[in-house]
Amino acid sequence: MRRDPVAAQRLFATAFPQLLIAIIWRNPKGLRSLLALEIHNCDNNIKARSFVGWGRQFRGGLVDAWKPPPGIEESIAGMAAKIEVTIADQNPVVRAGLEALIERDGRFTVCGVHPTGESLLNALKTKPVEIAVVGWTLPDMTGGAVLQRVKQEKWQTRIIIYTGERSNEVLRQAIKGGAWGFVSKTEDPQVLLEAVVSVARGRLSLPYVDIDLLNHDPLEGLTARERELLAALANGWTNLQIAARTGISRNTVKYHLKNLYDKLGVSNRAMAVALHVSVNRSEQQ
Q1: pLDDT, tens digit, 9 for 90 and up, residues 30-79
Q2: Cβ(160)–Cβ(195) below 8 Å
Q3: Is the pLDDT of residue 230 over 50?
Q4: Which helix (H) or strand (E) holds 21?
Q5: pLDDT of residue 189
Q6: Rounded mean pLDDT, 104-122
């Protein structure tokens, strides 16, 4: 039977998803030698790094003199404790930047980068990771929907919302949805990295928030017209349909929608509808 080394490697890494092998011995001259192998299995993509003590020359298969690469012992000490992180954001520049930022830090390993919420959820269903850094506005859903699904499925992945949204309403929804962390994209990147570490250690990393904000009904301050518009949006009506059925102009519809978005603390139609659905679901429970 022909052996498939790639298949064997995948089988081995599946059985041991995060493994560190370190072998230290002494060669015939009594000099310490070192071999280390680190394996991570992230979303079935095998990441492996190996290190070996370096010899100046080989004689008869034996190493004449060995010297471990600089810093190798410090690297090995932290290998087994790396924090697994996956990323989801609609902006390709943000995704690439986050991946580079997190991979550069020796405390973490990136296990996946996703452009949509559905892609992230499918990956978590296959193999949940420790931490997911998730944008609030994704092409197919909000960060709130991601939080809801993770809670519903009882996955152990801890979500950190990483967003440019500045409204208290987004923060309120994130906290009520079960986010472990909330970091603004305007913050220094180091703030995000430290939030990942804190959350991995079991600590929440959230900005200060007034408790009254968490219990606030976001629809409370809407006028009758704005509530009517919100219901129309939830039913999938276009601006033209809303104008025709309410007897107002399209420009007036746009004006009312802008006021509606400002009051709700959202920036677009999809987020307004998601909030409307979330509030209705909470009232029914």
Answers
A1: 444 444 444 455 554 544 444 444 433 333 333 333 344 455 444 444 44
A2: yes
A3: yes
A4: strand 18-26
A5: 94
A6: 95
Q: Supply the pLDDT for residue 50.
A: 45
- To the nearest 10°, report the CA torsion of 230, 232, 234, 238: -110
* The predicted structure's pLDDT at residue 206: 84
Instruction: Please give the helix or strand (H or E) that residue 55 lies within, else none.
Output: strand 54-55
Distance CA 108, CA 197 (A): 9
The region that residue 95 occupies, defined by phi over 0 for left and psi between -120 and 50 for alpha, beta otherwise, is alpha
Q: Can you tell me the mean pLDDT for 253-264?
A: 84
Q: For the chain, what's the residue count? A: 285
**Domains of the chain, each with CATH number or no CATH:** 5-79 (no CATH), 83-214 (3.40.50.2300), 224-284 (1.10.10.10)
Which residue is associated with the tokens 């420790």?
Answer: 130
Q: Which long-range contacts (CB under 8 A, 24 or more apart) does 192-195 make?
A: 192/98, 192/101, 192/133, 192/160, 192/162, 193/101, 193/102, 193/105, 193/107, 193/108, 195/160
CB under 8 Å, gap of 24 or more: what pairs does 211-216 form?
213/168, 213/171, 213/172, 214/172, 214/175, 214/176, 216/172
